[in-house]
Amino acid sequence: ALAQADEAPAELARRERIFASAQERYYERPPQIERGWRHHLVDTTGRAYVDMVNNVTGLGHGHPGVADAVNRQIRILNTNSRFLYRELAEYSERLLALLPDDAREGSADRDALDTVLLVNSGSEAVDLALRVAQAATGRKTVVSLREAYHGWTMASDAVTTSAYDNPDALATRPDWVHVADVPNLFRGTYRGEGAGARYAADLGADLDRLAEEGRPIAAFICESVLGNAGGVLLPDGYLADAYARVRAAGGLCIADEVQVGFGRMGSSFWGFEQSGVVPDLITIAKPMGNGFPIGGVITSQRIADALAGQGQFFSSAGGNPLSCRVGIAVLDAMAAEGLQENARVVGGRLAEGFRALAERHPLIGPVHGEGLYLGVELVRDRESMEPAASEAAAICERLRELGVIVLTTSERSNVLKIKPPLCLTAASADFVVAALDRVLSEGW
Ligand code: PMP
């Protein structure tokens, strides 16, 4: 079976005939996956892998609760979301109940978050949040951070600034997008103490300039933890300061929680809670449906109502009875299985394991993130932080041979992204750390 695994699967040639070259695939010689179970994937030769990258399948693969929900609901009712049925309000209420108490209440500078718009993906959620924010403010300009990924639709792609996804990203943003400096404490303009305030002050200066140019801000969008940069935590005080400046300039704050929200941080359900802020709009997707396509925007009624000025908003499948039932089943399972807490405990153990490896393997630089959103940054030199990109790619290939699926992220492709299903066990976490130890001991 192992010999077979080394041969390129027939499916690869088939896929290559049909797919466009822009369609990303992983690995030079990817295993052909046949089945998934919890945090494992199994290929057609029967080989099992620990899946360290599937954050979409937050509960784990093949979850029986989700399977039952799909099976039951699709036999009873699935209709487009113009009709009146119970599931939409029930699921929306469940989502709102996940917000921190202060978010469900308004304050002097923002409304209560009490309204949910459901769509089918993260890109749609971001697209819609931008549109709602522009409608509510009557302005166009959106500020997004360098090195961000927010989606593939026209608007969500417009605020995507990562050269990982598009080497020409910065040169080709439309004029309604302003790109602000990314507050990356490890590689950015400011690094030490007080860096958060300095980045926020620079953002404030950008906002002043935009206003002077007659392009006042409609919305500021960022991930609450820099997911696509490798799980880099925002500097202390940055987000609170940035949100205050955006609001003072009349803009709305969008937290893109597609990757880092929904329990993955372990210590908090939402990424923005880490910074003690409350956004005006929250975008969610990936783990909401455990692989079933669901996305959403959580905001206030007042902000969402601005859409009415642009005609009706309607998504045929967004919020249909089936996707709502799946969403409810996911939330039930997350609670019943204590997955947020598991993310905290097992994620902490993993991070500790990686940091211990760093003491013996100089290729490991900073270990980013929290809970089960971690990034192991590989560098050729810890002082210069020279990215070890080719090493990172080779390490991923070698880890695959040892039964661990892990991939790279960041603009420099030198961060091992660790975002497994939240059901990852301590035993599997230890296995992954041991496998990385073994690979790094093989002579890098
Ligand atoms: N926002 C963020 C932060 C993302 O990481 C992604 C997907 N990687 C998206 C939005 C887009 O989500 P989707 O792929 O579901 O359209």
Automatic annotation (TrEMBL):
Family: Belongs to the class-III pyridoxal-phosphate-dependent aminotransferase family.
Protein name as catalogued: 5-aminovalerate aminotransferase DavT
Organism the protein comes from: Microbacterium azadirachtae
Stretch forming the signal peptide: none
Span within the parent record: 539 to 982 of 982
